[in-house]
Amino acid sequence: MIKAKPIVDKEFWILKEGDEKVGNIQAVPNGYSVTINNMNATFKTLSLIKKQTNISFDTLDLNKDKDNTIYGFDPKCKAYNAMFDVEQHLPLFTKTRKSKSWFAAGWYNVFQHNTWIPMENPKLITLQRYNYEGPFKTSPQRCI
User: Fold this and answer.
1) In a domain, 68, yes or no
2) Has residue 141 been placed in a domain?
3) Which of 3, 78, 94, 140 is the least buried, fewest Cβ under 10 Å from its Cβ?
4) What is the total count of domains within the chain?
5) Which residues pair with 103 in a beta bridge?
6) pLDDT score of 144
7) Sign of CA dihedral 129, 130, 133, 139
C-alpha cells in the first residue's frame, strides 16, 4: 500500500511505499496530478484518487510544533521562518512572517565593549559583528 504524507495541506503530498519515496500528488488548476515512478495521471478530486488507486492519505498534524522550539532552543516568542544556518551553526528565526530581521534562538555570551554580556535571542547581525559563545539553553555563567 502507498501512503500519502501531506507536506502542504490540501496542496502537496509525498507518496511512500515503506520507507521509499515513489512519487507525489500535487494540486493543479483542474484537480490533482498524481506522479508515481515517472507515470502521471490527473484526477478531479481527492475522493476519486482514494477510490481508484491504492493510496491511503495521512492527516497533516498542525499541532506538531506546539512546543515552539527552534532546534531545541526556546525563542520565548512566536517564531516564524525557522531555519538552521549550517555555516555558522546557529538556529535562526524571524519574529513575523515578512520580517527581514533574523534572530538566533538561545542564550549567547557576546563580547561587546571589552566585556562578555549574556544575551537571549540576539539579532543575527550582533553575532556577525562581535565575538560570541553559544548557543546555550540557559543563561550562561562566565568565569573571568
Assistant:
1) no
2) no
3) 78
4) 2
5) 93, 123
6) 53
7) negative
Identify whether 8 is part of a domain. Answer: yes
In this predicted model, what pLDDT tens digit does every residue of 32-50 receive, in sequence order?
999 998 899 999 998 899 8
Enclosing domain of residue 32: 2-57
Indicate whether 37 belongs to any domain.
yes
- Cβ(120)–Cβ(110) under 8 Å? no
* Bridge partners (DSSP) listed for residue 58: none
pTM of the model: 0.53
CA–chain centroid gap for 50, Å, is 29
DSSP string, 60-118: P-TTTTTT--BTTB--SS--EEEEEETTTTEEEEESSTT----EE-SEEEEEETTEEEE
Q: Rounded to the nearest 5°, which phi and psi values hold at 75?
A: -80, -10
The Cα–Cα gap between 134 and 105 comes to 10
Question: What is the arithmetic mean of pLDDT over 22-35?
Answer: 92
Instruction: Answer whether 17's CB lies under 8 Å from 10's CB.
Output: no
Q: Give yes or no for a contact between 69 and 39, defined as CB atoms under 8 angstroms apart.
A: no
